[in-house]
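Bug report (template v2)

What were you trying to do?
Predict the complex of my protein with zinc ion.

What happened?
Run completed; filing so the output is reviewed.

Input:
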Amino acid sequence: MIWAIGIDDTDYPDGGCTTWHANDLEELLVSLGAKPIERRLVRLWPFAVRRTRGNAALALIVEVDDRIKNDCLNLIRQWYDDLVEHIKQVDTNQHARPGLIIAIDGEMDSNIYWECVKNEYTDIERIRNHDSVVLILESDLGRDGLIGAAAAISWIPDSTSTFEGIAWRNESMYGTQRTAPNGVFKRLESKHPNTFMNRDPTKNRGLISPRTPCPVLFGVRGWNHDDTLEAMNDLSSLDWNEQIYATAIHRTNQCSDDHLEGIIDGTVMNIPIRNRGGHVTLDILTSSGVVHVVSFKEGGDVNREIGNSIPGDRIHVLGIFSPEGDLHIERFMRSYSSPGFLKRPDCECGGHLRTMGSKSDLRCKSCRKRMTSHWIAINRSNMGWVEPPVSSRRHLSMPISMMK
Ligand SMILES: [Zn+2]
């Protein structure tokens, strides 16, 4: 039979990483004869109250035949108990609440996934009572991890999946600085064009290594499995100034748009309000009522262009609703630009027409031609999709270059 083993909430601010714990467990299962099929890294709703870094849960898809089934179950129980004991000792802030669920692969209710990427999900009993569940492990630390674990195993990947190769460090290096090999970003760009978000060109900053004390040395994102694996192997052959403990490829829901509402069309109702801290707010009128739109300073072009909106503009926005009901913009386009602010017309001679004091006519300063006083609208052009700079994205929204 094929199991989907969901694991979540095993990391804590000072260390740990669910990807690493999943790797550890898979190695043990393989040593008993289980056959690994796929690892899945599933990002959840970014506003979840108890989210962890990046808010990602893991699923191991493994084939376990009947002869080793009980051995595997015993091993998983022991591994989980050891992990909980370890976390109790090192996670002084009591952050982690690990949960583990095994279900028959592909049989968990996929609606749980969709609820977990778009909302705060709380119905643990619905998970517990599902027919496909083989084993549930939870501890007295709390049950939050069960929700991410259930989300990871109820995800049914489709063609919007992306991939992430992850390399882990040896434990002795945790907390020390990572040294990227010279030329690693050029190498990715020239030799591995199907990888993405490796570097932020606007800040010339690498994005493959985290800056946290977690066990990850680097991660590389790609559009398909084989090219991601090839890039992973190539990078692993470089000199990182430390040994690589292990590597693995994960199928992910990153950049899938799964977390976003569909495209919302609306008409801008007011002049955008620029708030302290740089975020811009705006109301748009849609077919289902008024939507309060928020864009953040980190959004770069998105924030600037949203700030240039004027009443009457028609825009398409993609974003995520916050718990307060505001739409946080991930990308947008302006399909109709309302005629802009008014200005005086220019004279035929190229000179400027001005009003003549108290009289109502306009007069050209150059050729002295007169014209009845009036205003004309400033022309504004429509614009295609804009998105935040790559380092400010949350890895949930599909890059514009991949939109169909
Ligand atoms: Zn003139």
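What did the reviewer find?
Residues 347, 349, 351, 364, 366-367, 369 surround zinc ion (CB under 6 Å). The chain has three domains: 2-252, 264-338+388-402, 342-377.
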